[in-house]
Task: inverse folding
């Protein structure tokens, strides 16, 4: 409407003080009226963005120490470290301060095979299990929200969290300590192999005792802190860390449209 009115005013001759209109003399030219400038586009209330992200996930040893003994020193009984890498896609809807994101990702376990021995009193270091991850990973999806605070027009910080669900893939193959025939707690596939031997010896001579039992579906809890760099109105780079069932650090790149 403003554009139409501007064009209409530009096409009308400018009124004089007494309301009359002068006719230009013969042989003279009349200066053209200046072109009207287009009305500015209204600011977008929200921006959509698609992106990819990568993360490194870990569980600090201090959290596990009260439950699983750590045989330090680099020997065969040393407890493995819990690590994983995840790769995902994101779809975001955001405005100046609010962010809503949907994600789908796959996390690949980087846990090496090794010996897991529960903490007990009195200590018994030979009753643990040898666990070997086989194609262990998880598919996860969820939704996150975040509040964004700008330090500069091109630099901001985000604080938020969310929930999701994960489906575990693969398995943990287990070797248990040798129990011997007739044991009330017999779980060995071959009860005559490695009788009374610890699992870290039976793994080399005996068949495994089957996959370890654990839930196939897990809830995902997210607590996120990030900093985002805005590259004009086209792209963003985000560095982040927090809790994604495991502690994590990562990076995401997004394209706006």
Result:
């Amino acid at each position: 409407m403003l554009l139409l009115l501007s064009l209409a005013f530009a096409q009308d001759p400018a009124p004089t003080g007494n309301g009359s209109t002068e006719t230009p003399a013969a042989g003279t030219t009349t200066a053209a009226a200046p072109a009207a400038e287009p009305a500015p586009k209204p600011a977008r209330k929200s921006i959509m963005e698609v992106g990819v992200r990568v993360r490194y996930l870990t569980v600090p040893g201090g959290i596990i120490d009260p439950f699983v003994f750590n045989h330090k020193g680099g020997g065969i009984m040393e407890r493995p470290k819990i690590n994983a890498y995840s790769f995902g896609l994101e779809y975001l809807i955001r405005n100046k301060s609010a962010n809503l994101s949907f994600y789908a990702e796959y996390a690949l376990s980087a846990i090496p095979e090794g010996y897991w021995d529960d903490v007990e009193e009195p200590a018994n270091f030979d009753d643990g299990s040898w666990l070997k991850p086989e194609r262990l990973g998880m598919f996860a999806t969820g939704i996150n929200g975040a509040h964004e605070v700008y330090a500069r027009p091109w630099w901001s910080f985000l604080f938020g969290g969310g929930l999701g669900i994960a489906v575990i893939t693969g398995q943990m193959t287990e070797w248990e300590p040798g129990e011997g025939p007739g044991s009330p707690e017999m779980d060995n596939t071959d009860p005559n192999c490695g009788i009374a031997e610890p699992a870290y010896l039976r793994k080399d001579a005996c068949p495994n005792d089957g996959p370890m039992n654990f839930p196939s579906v897990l809830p995902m809890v997210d607590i996120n802190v990030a900093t985002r760099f805005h590259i004009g109105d086209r792209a963003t780079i985000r560095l982040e860390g927090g809790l994604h069932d495991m502690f994590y650090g990562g990076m995401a790149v997004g394209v706006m449209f």
In short: DSSP finds three helices and ten strands in the chain. Residues 47-152+159-177+210-256 form a domain with the Porin fold (CATH 2.40.160).
